[in-house]
Automatic annotation (TrEMBL):
<protein>
    <recommendedName>
        <fullName>S100/CaBP-9k-type calcium binding subdomain domain-containing protein</fullName>
    </recommendedName>
</protein>
<dbReference type="GO" id="GO:0048306">
    <property type="term" value="F:calcium-dependent protein binding"/>
</dbReference>
<dbReference type="GO" id="GO:0005737">
    <property type="term" value="C:cytoplasm"/>
</dbReference>
<dbReference type="InterPro" id="IPR011992">
    <property type="entry name" value="EF-hand-dom_pair"/>
</dbReference>
<feature type="domain" description="S100/CaBP-9k-type calcium binding subdomain">
    <location>
        <begin position="7"/>
        <end position="48"/>
    </location>
</feature>
<dbReference type="GO" id="GO:0005509">
    <property type="term" value="F:calcium ion binding"/>
</dbReference>
<dbReference type="InterPro" id="IPR013787">
    <property type="entry name" value="S100_Ca-bd_sub"/>
</dbReference>
<dbReference type="GO" id="GO:0046914">
    <property type="term" value="F:transition metal ion binding"/>
</dbReference>
<dbReference type="Pfam" id="PF01023">
    <property type="entry name" value="S_100"/>
</dbReference>
<dbReference type="InterPro" id="IPR034325">
    <property type="entry name" value="S-100_dom"/>
</dbReference>
Amino acid sequence: MAQPTPLEASLGALIMTFDKHAGSGDAKTLNKKELTNLIKAELHNIAGVRPVLDHTITLLNTDGSVDFKEYITLIGSLACATCVLIGLP
């Protein structure tokens, strides 16, 4: 099998990170504690986008859990906010 491209490897990392933190209870969702732990462990260097992160979590977390689709929406929002912060279009 061919070596994955950087983007393919990144997609795998997103999936594995979700699976790693979605352990207790329903393995298809992150509860509030799991989401908090994921953010602390995996996103601790993105301090500049913390307000965006907090706002997005509030919007996503209406049912007390975050599924994979909501998680990917969160990651996409962080990517957009990071682009703005570093001056990319």
